[in-house]
Amino acid sequence: MILQTVGLGREVAMGDQPLVILDDINLAINAGESVAITGPSGSGKSTLLGLLAGLDVPSRGEVWLDGQSLFRLTEEGRAALRARAVGFVFQNFQLLPGLTALENVALPLELAGRSDAMARAGHWLGLVGLDARRRHYPLQLSGGEQQRVALARAFAGEPRVLFADEPTGNLDAATGAAVIDQLFELNAEAGTTLILVTHDAVLAGRCARRIGLSGGRLA
Prior knowledge:
This protein has helices at residues 45-52, 75-85, 101-111, 117-127, 143-156, 173-190, 201-205, and strands at residues 3-14, 17-29, 34-38, 60-65, 68-69, 86-90, 161-165, 193-197, 209-214, 217-218. The protein has a 6-stranded mixed beta sheet with strand order 6-7-8-3-9-10. A 4-stranded antiparallel beta sheet has the order 2-1-4-5, with helices on one face. Helices cover 36% and strands 28% of the residues. By secondary structure, it is an alpha/beta fold. The chain is built from 7 helices and 10 strands. The protein is globular.
C-alpha cells in the first residue's frame, strides 16, 4: 500500500462555528493504482489532494505516504519525502517563466542533487514530443505544450506517486484529450501511482478507481 488515510479531517475557523471541509476520510491506495477524486465544487477535492501530498496539515487524522506518517515528520521532512517520492501536475502548469522548458524540467533534479539533470530533462522532453522546443520559454509555448513540459518535469524525478489537480482545466477539449493520453501512457510505462482530481467524468472514467466526495465526506 502506497497511501493510506485514517480518520482524516480538515476544518477552518469561521466565526463561532468551525467550517468542516473534510470529515473522517479513510482511504487505502495500492502502488500502481490510478484513482480519480471526483465531486462537485466545494466538496473538498483539492483540499484532500493537498493533505495527501503533505502540502496542508489536517485538523485530525493521519496520512501514510510511502511507509511514512506525513504529519509526524517536520515540514522539512515532508518536503524531503515529496522531493523523493512525489510528482505534481497542476491546472495552471506552474512553470517558471524565466527558465526554458529544459531548465524547468531540470530544476527539481538539480535541487535533488542529480548530476545528470540536464540529460534526463532532455530525455523526458523528447518523450513528450518537445525536443525541438527545449530552448523555448513558457510564454513561447502553447497551453498544451506547457502542460507537456509539466508532465516531463513530474515524471523525470521517477516519483512513486503522481498527484494531478484538474490537469486539463486550462486546455481546450482536443488539447486536453491529447495531454491526458500522454499522461496515462507515461504513467503506465513508469508504473507510477496516479491520483488525480477532476470534474471531468470522461477523464475520471479512465482511472481504475473513482473516489467520490460530497460535502467533505466520502460519497
